[in-house]
């Protein structure tokens, strides 16, 4: 019997590679090919497909922190996960667990954001399985091909096996075609998923099946390396191995069924994976694990757990705003700085592009710059470690942009998959989705917005991509969500406010001219002011005589008092290197510099070098300019303490490009540009508190170095500076087509394509992570053609077909009829003869 199969042969259909980077081997789908791309190839951007998942309950993000009495009144009634009461009971469990261990609970707003992320992940996973089953592979139309979803394999083949996502392992199917498909909606594997993968490898080996890992994004390089190491380890341990292993993917974008809910165009816009879901710290990761447990059993620490009941998915409903913690209290002037808590990672709204509107008025011209002497180019110098990190804000409630309708594409959630080797209930609960482990292979501290588009395929949409440094190992990296959200928020702030507001100033005599009122409500404004203060601290640390540079500087200073005058110094941009290619902008380099004012008016308040020859004072000032300033510039551009400043500045470049394009032709963000409305991107912080820390440092400066003279020991307190950060004017320098192709071609092959998943730049030292923000459904931007393939069909025995008996009896009947006629004729002839 010949088993026929039609195989799709289009160029975009991924074909497994025999020796791929992830350790693939064998032919995973002998005789047929499940549509998808191999993990070693980058899919075309226009193959990105949208699918829907059930949204969250009404008001879940609006829930405020309950009082102790309110928590005590909560009753455990086996509520399904994702409801307000279940969330609060889980919060009560968290408090009890932390308190009993002698610790402190996580801030409620931060804990709630983790809870919502876990709930969303539990709904996205089954929706992705449904997308594969119903839309991409259309297995519902496969007839008798033997494919099953969310079910166990026949116990006669695999006793006590788990529920598998998709498989065709069945005695009715030739064993050479047996395949187990494990579906993962993202581009990485959580700790739970990694353990599951190991078990599925063994079970595929036990049954003699092939194993196909099917992702919803291009698996990250670190994930592929982990899969290869794991396969090698299992093989070395003599584990039963599958007949073949392949890793495939289809580029997708998960969108909630309710566009007004979290993640929808009208709510907190999703960030590209892993940035939207990866934990920002090990503590967040541990809390998500804790929430997973709370979702799988009653969350009441005072009662014994009851047998778990199948969780029902709540009805999707719109969510309008996010709750956040209260603003931090203001510190009193001239007090030592107090340690401040790290930010709570939480997403805030990104407005979807709107239909082009009339151009907004341009910002007024910034005041002329002060007279300065250019600072020498930075040179490599030793820089002391461990400076004070730049604090960043905690998000607060923000208004939600008007939701943009999207084409409905409801998807029924698939049955869940419990952990391996654990029998599944008849009705599976909401699928567990353990929190992602710290994302490996990417240094998220370096993440910046480095690619944007004005349109996508002529439609009102913005494709964008972040660039981050790759790491030499796959150690966990945290902070991706926090840093990506900061970059996107800054992008909108830079468009919404006029450029003349983009400055900060720290001068002990000007407490009322620290920052513009509206800019002072944003995280971008806070980053600039904190960076200004940190610059002054770095300058002081570089002068210390317990550092090589500081010692050389001290030895070079002249005069009995080694005095020089502190002056105004400020950070400003130098020309950014970019490439504008049609409706695309590539940000290649975004350097910053530090300027030093040399006018008498630039001398710091209340400072002088009385008794010292003015010529020596001037010469010492020149030594500071030549020796210390280049090291300060080096720190601004490379030290981790200024990573946030570099991050928001890269977004400033992208926003400036949009602003200039809007002046010629209204863009989809015309209603945002120069609107003056930053309500959606405000954070709770207090600029006066930063000013007070600066004043305390200015008036209580510690000695920088000491030396001996004939008159005795002397000490020098660093030259105290004032100044700020000025981003009011920036310049973009386009490298041109030829230079871009010659020097930076690898950027073009990574930035835009990263919408399908993390793409490693050809050099291997950078990784790009992209996404799209659109006010229209993706299928209107990139219409999808149905995938053409025919799964293996089980041959039916002839006796099972109705016409079998007709075909068998017709010859017999004809023979009998013929024989009867002949007999009748012979009998008649005999009688007549």
Automatic annotation (TrEMBL):
The lineage of its organism: Bacteria, Bacillati, Actinomycetota, Actinomycetes, Mycobacteriales. The chain crosses the membrane at residues 803-824. Residues 304-317, 326-365 have a biased composition (Pro residues). Residues 1-20 form the signal peptide. Residues 256-285, 298-365 are annotated as: Disordered. This is Uncharacterized protein. Residues 268-279 have a biased composition (Low complexity). Keywords: Membrane, Signal, Transmembrane, Transmembrane helix.
